[in-house]
Specification:
Chain lengths: 478, 478
């Protein structure tokens, strides 16, 4: 019972987030007027700003603020040889099973577990019947144990480049951004004259033909990644894995994610990808339980080695100072090891929405409760809303619009709103996560002051108009 | 002769740009270690920053600085019904022809024109032979007039969503971002409570299975767009077309593109797309001649009407004030007209590289010439380089690194370089388009001043260290 209650509270929160996203224009179902498309989502006016802010913060902390990391933006359709070498064409697959009763196709590793050979009760054609499980799981839709054999289904999206649909024009949509960094390793290293340890970072869309898409934008076939490959001398890899797992954990905390909802979990040996020598997940306490936000793995030199073999191009780095153990002299060629912090931008957006969502009940002096998104000011889609107290007073509206322009000139996304009573306007901004509201009123005419209202505690201060930009800027930078 | 000379100077410039892009890490051939992939390019450390800056400037001027435009970020794979309704599945095609001699497949509308039935001389199997043109053009490869019939080739990339490659799982990669704005028109309008005229803007990748890819990143199968759909009352459309064509032209000029290399060209009636009532191209004088940079079209209500018909969903806007001509009373439902400024981000990057490229010969007092990219400071990948005069002086290097951090904290992308003589370091930054270099030297220790060197005229000023951030910031904002 306790579990059921918990589950319903959890799905309740997800429903509220999905509802808020649609109502306020964070996230819409894609192609909605045509009945939508499986697990495809469009980011509306507020959502696109939130996602851009999340991705800009990542770029700032991973590329701009570091001397040892540079950026890359590779094409989504790469040479098919890349995916042959990386193992994605051969092995990147899920075990799929068909239910012989309800004809559902599902992923074997996501189905309800039973003992193979056990008697199972399920509903078929309106009756409860009994069957024997021919697999160690049953159909997740109807509970039937009458299942097909498992078969492997490759997750790569295939398409054809060029005018003819022949086999040799087959290309793939990238299932991850990472391989572009391996393939471009030497180009980037040599043009930028970089010396390991150094990183190459990339953001962008990836595509996986997932059978099980779930939890709104958490797992969808088209998604956005933020990945960095950090190339280092092999002996330094364990230390850099430690460094990056902590740095990435701290990034979420710095952007306001509640620490108690985050954890670092080391992969068990049997969970490790075959190429990885150590991996941590940054996990978030989603409404459905702890689940992945980001993986930080020691990929060793697996990828560079594979691409070196497949392309016939030498991908080693030459260190002129390091002692070559074979000759005892300075100068050695080696394949760097790679530490990879790989985050999902779209699921990070979902996480920040969940973590920031708050409902306040009515309280003394305030008869209405409110919904508030306590987003970090750097992430908030709108940083400051300018509200003239009275819509019909042209001096007020003109002044408010002037201040909007002033903010925009300073690179701060400001929003003008004159519709409805001031309380409703505050409520709309609370729900959109806007950290500051500035109200222009009669007193502004007299003494040049305005009211600044803080989203989180609803405190209101009277400040000088000319200080407004400075106050908001420094709060955002804090 | 004059023409040939001109052409060779032009291709010379393209070769220099391609060379610079590769050498300095602006643009690499994609999957280069595997021999590349047709017309696919990856943006290296400098290129990704340049492209991000171009796209950020567009977003700033089109979304953030305007009250009447909001953003959108839709999925690349949309419902196939969107592309059926828009006409892309049925009609989005190029006429293709095969050469019977050299087996080249090419686009009929891009082939060298001859008179049909004319005698044509060409080379086949090592000999010059004569043939009769069976089409009003010849093979662009070998000049042969022995050609197949034309057939239509659809430009949409097809793939399959879900586990089975059956016809009904077919989906397409979007060939333009525009349709997402039409499909989401009402969702965005109602959640943001917008009243025409208003716009929805989007940036992102689009894909066209082009047969003729050309001019480096100018035309490639995978490319990045910056599109805005401006929804307005039908009677206002001509005025808004005028407004937007000028506004978009001015945007390029504001970002430093030379005015003499830009022009606005009205489409002739026979060039107009079937849905358009008026269209202008912003054209740039590329090395191969005037060619498109951006199109600004009056798309009428063609798209909304098509999607309304195909989806069965009403897509009209209700204006409660406007007089309904049928009833003579206030309140009318109508389909807005749409003005669309549609720019290519990737070709805009190429344009800015071409336009900014300059070679200065050696001059009095300077024995070496230089290559300089005169990029607008807002577009420059690196805004400021910090150069300690002497690498071995730890005070200098420490100070320079401190200043780098100070710039980064202020959101200005700074770069530290201590390798090689100062002249070579300046030359590297000139070639990368870095507008400012700051040198820290012995005098800095004594009086706290540094040298700031301006890329364009190589002027050097002595400034106070604490003014550096302010000076650079205000030059960038200018």
């Amino acid at each position: 019972m306790g579990d059921k209650k918990k589950n319903s509270a959890e799905s309740d929160l997800m429903q509220k987030i999905v509802g808020l996203c649609k109502r306020r224009g964070f996230v819409f179902q894609s192609s909605e007027i045509y009945g939508g498309l499986k697990s495809a989502y469009d980011y509306g006016p507020l959502g696109v700003e939130l996602k851009r802010n999340v991705m800009a913060e990542w770029w700032r902390s991973m590329v701009h603020e570091r001397e040892d990391v540079v950026g890359l933006d590779a094409s989504i359709i790469m040479s098919p040889k890349v995916w042959q070498a990386s193992g994605h064409v051969g092995g990147f697959s899920d075990p799929l099973v068909d239910c012989k009763d309800c004809k559902t196709r599902f992923r074997a590793d996501k189905a309800p577990v039973v003992e193979k050979g056990a008697e199972v009760k399920y509903r078929a054609q309106g009756k409860t019947v009994t069957g024997v499980a021919n697999q160690p799981y049953v159909c997740p839709e109807c509970g039937s144990p009458n299942l097909s054999e498992e078969r492997e289904f490759n997750l790569l999206f295939k398409t054809n480049l060029g005018p003819v649909d022949t086999g040799d024009s087959t290309v793939y949509l990238r299932p991850e951004t990472a391989q572009a960094m391996f393939v471009n390793f030497l180009n980037v290293q040599s043009t930028y004259r970089l010396k390991p340890p150094f990183g190459i970072a990339q953001q962008g869309k990836s595509f996986r033909n997932e059978i099980t898409v779930e939890h709104f934008i958490f797992r969808s076939c088209e998604f956005e990644q933020m990945e960095m490959e950090y190339f280092c001398p092999p002996e330094e890899a364990p230390n850099w894995l430690d460094y990056w797992k902590q740095e990435r954990f701290d990034w979420y905390v710095r952007l306001g994610c509640k620490k108690e909802n985050l954890r670092l979990r080391a992969h068990e040996d049997d969970e490790l990808a075959h190429y990885a020598d150590g991996c941590y997940d940054v996990e978030y306490k989603y409404p459905w339980g702890w689940d992945e936000l980001e993986g930080i793995a020691n990929r060793t030199n697996y990828d560079l080695k594979k691409h070196q073999e497949a392309s016939g191009k030498k991908l080693t780095y030459f260190d002129p100072v390091k002692i070559n153990p074979e000759t005892g002299k300075q100068g050695v060629h080696y394949l760097p090891y790679v530490i990879e912090p790989a985050a999902g931008a779209t699921r990070t957006v979902l996480m920040f929405l969940l973590d920031a969502y708050d409902e306040e009940p009515p309280s003394e002096g305030r008869k209405d409760g409110r919904v508030v998104l306590r987003l970090h000011p750097r992430l908030a889609p709108i940083k400051v809303a300018l509200l003239p107290l009275v819509k019909k007073d042209e001096w007020l509206t003109g002044k408010a619009r002037e201040i909007v322009k002033d903010f925009l000139r300073n690179g701060i996304n400001a929003f003008y709103d004159e519709k409805d009573a001031i309380g409703r306007r505050y409520a709309r901004q609370d729900e959109a996560g806007t950290p500051f509201c500035i109200t222009v009123d009669g007193q502004t005419k007299e003494d040049g002051t305005v009211t600044i209202r803080y989203r989180d505690d609803m405190r209101q201060d009277r400040i000088k108009l000319e200080e407004a930009v400075h106050i908001v800027t420094s709060k955002i930078r804090e």
